[in-house]
Amino acid sequence: MDISTLSDKINYTLSTLRYGENPAELYEPIRYIMSLGGKRIRPLLVLLAAKMYDEDVESALLPAAAVEVFHNFTLMHDDIMDKAPLRRGQQTVHEKWNANIAILSGDVMLVQAYQLLLGVEQDKLSQVLKLFSKTAADVCEGQQYDMNFEQREQVSIQEYIHMITLKTAVLLGFSLELGAVLQGAPAADAEHLRLFGNNIGIAFQLRDDLLDVYGDKDKFGKQVGGDILSDKKTFLMLTALEQANQEQLQTIVGWRSHTNESIAEEKVRAITQVYDQLNIRQQTEQQIELYFQKAIEHLDSVQVPEGQKAVIRGLALQLMERDS
């Protein structure tokens, strides 16, 4: 069973989910954000991990769907906090409706993620719910750190990595761990898969930071330069702040808080020029490779035949080489 077949199973399962009908303003935004697609990486990881221990992944489909519903809930709420206009090239929910509706619809998505997990086999249900609840809290902690950093002058690169670990990486790690747990994998394997996912997740977010500046808008699906425009303290920005000379530092600080749309392109161009002078792109790519190699070490430690790891190894490589 290849990735295409598994993806078809995920998409079909998601298409069968029923969120509710009335009031329409509560449920239509859920159908809208879920219809925007996306790579469905997290549910795919659930199934790929499950498949390493049993070819029959049918029982993992609804738990995998739960992870995707939860992920989209976080996106819906994050977009409100980030005041993001676009998600996957389309209007964000709070832009299409309003922030209050987006908050409530997201809340229902979180509830429904739990409901989808209730079908897990009874002997594994308690463990799965504990792992999921811990992951959900971690993601919220990561988002809070992200917002805290917006108000702080000084943020270290180490703090930033911790934040993206919580906000982004732990859900990838949980997805893999979940697939393993559902199929009764050894605890050590489940742990290695979790850490594989965490490190891939960090690399994935660093790639996202990189694409925000250097990506193609048509492929990226979000506003290129959005992090610069909103003065986000990304890995690129924090590395530049650490290494900038006085003139470069003045350029960065001078553009901070300039939010006028008429000079948006000029701001992105000026900050990107500083990044280019400091080789920030290359340094970010080196960090991506570092975390990718850490991830592969954990995958190598999983005690299943190498052939059963090939697809998940290939997917990890594909994620690291993505341009969107």
List the SSEs and their pairings:
Layout: H1 3-15, H2 24-35, H3 41-51, H4 61-82, E1 86-87, E2 90-91, H5 93-96, H6 99-117, H7 122-151, H8 157-182, H9 187-214, H10 217-220, H11 226-229, H12 235-243, H13 246-255, H14 264-277, H15 280-300, H16 310-320
Helix pairs in contact: 1-3, 1-4, 2-6, 3-4, 3-8, 4-6, 4-7, 4-8, 7-8, 8-9, 9-15, 13-14, 15-16
Describe this protein's structure.
The protein has 324 residues and is mostly helical. It has one domain (3-320): Farnesyl Diphosphate Synthase (Orthogonal Bundle), CATH 1.10.600.10. It is built from 16 helices and 2 strands. It has helices at residues 3-15, 24-35, 41-51, 61-82, 93-96, 99-117, 122-151, 157-182, 187-214, 217-220, 226-229, 235-243, 246-255, 264-277, 280-300, 310-320; strands at 86-87, 90-91. Strands 1-2 form a two-stranded antiparallel ribbon. Strand 1 (86-87) and strand 2 form a beta hairpin. Helix 4 (61-82) runs antiparallel to helix 6 (99-117), helix 4 runs antiparallel to helix 8 and helix 8 (157-182) packs across helix 9 (187-214). The two termini are 26 Å apart.
Radius of gyration: 20 Å
The CATH topology is what? Farnesyl Diphosphate Synthase
The oligomeric state is single chain
Strand order of the largest sheet: 1-2
Shape by Cα distribution: globular
CATH superfamily: Farnesyl Diphosphate Synthase
